[in-house]
Design goal:
The complex is a heterodimer of chains A (about 110) and B (about 110). With about 110 residues, chain A is mostly beta strands. Chain A has strands at about 5, 10-15, 20-25, 30-40, 40-50, 55, 65-70, 75-80, 90-95, 105, 110-114. In chain A, the strands form 2 sheets. In chain A, strands 2, 4, 5, 6, 9, 10 and 11 form a 7-stranded mixed β-sheet that branches. Chain A has a 4-stranded antiparallel β-sheet with strand order 1-3-8-7, with no helix packed on it. Chain B is about 0% helix and about 50% strand. Chain B is globular, with a radius of gyration of 13 Å. Chain B starts with a strand and ends with a strand. The relative contact order of chain B is 0.34. Classes of the chains: A mainly beta (about 110), B mainly beta (about 110). The interface between A and B is medium-sized, with 20 and 21 residues.
Chain lengths: ~110, ~110
Amino acid sequence: DAGVIQSPRHEVTEMGQEVTLRCKPISGHNSLFWYRQTMMRGLELLIYFNNNVPIDDSGMPEDRFSAKMPNASFSTLKIQPSEPRDSAVYFCASSPPDRGHGYTFGSGTRLTVV
Amino acid sequence: AQSVTQPDIHITVSEGASLELRCNYSYGATPYLFWYVQSPGQGLQLLLKYFSGDTLVQGIKGFEAEFKRSQSSFNLRKPSVHWSDAAEYFCAVGAGGSYIPTFGRGTSLIVHP
């Protein structure tokens, strides 16, 4: 298995532009999670999906952030419009139905908004 | 709600020395406990996990951790550290019906030759 695949690995964009981050979870995993990592706040859960349905988006910082999971093999996290304070590493993770086995993380997308 | 504390922001050890990284959690019942490692520019990799049974758990790369309920701790250990172990280590606790992990702030391990 190729693991959790995220794209792009790096994204540099100008303030005000729309940014879309992509994630392909591991086949057979039915839960998908988006995390944001910053020096100031550590790892924060933004949103998670179970069987493609958003369950808890209380971690999404503002209405500028949105996430979708149109099918079991693809999810997007969109920021529109982007701001410099959105600069962070965004991780996608997936887990099988038994979450006690832990999550598998992607390599992350490093977003820089200038 | 559950929480995790990793008291040490940085730990420096010499190659070949033993290692213990501390983790304390707060949760009323027995949680799921995890240790993850993050190498520079990489995602988090699961080292080991505990959710029941033997309180001493073995993980990958020669790591082990011991769950101590009385101390609400889940410390990570390794008898002999290798230079390649230099990385960021995260303890996480998963609790409640969803078991979604809450992560600590991490401990950065520096290994001197």
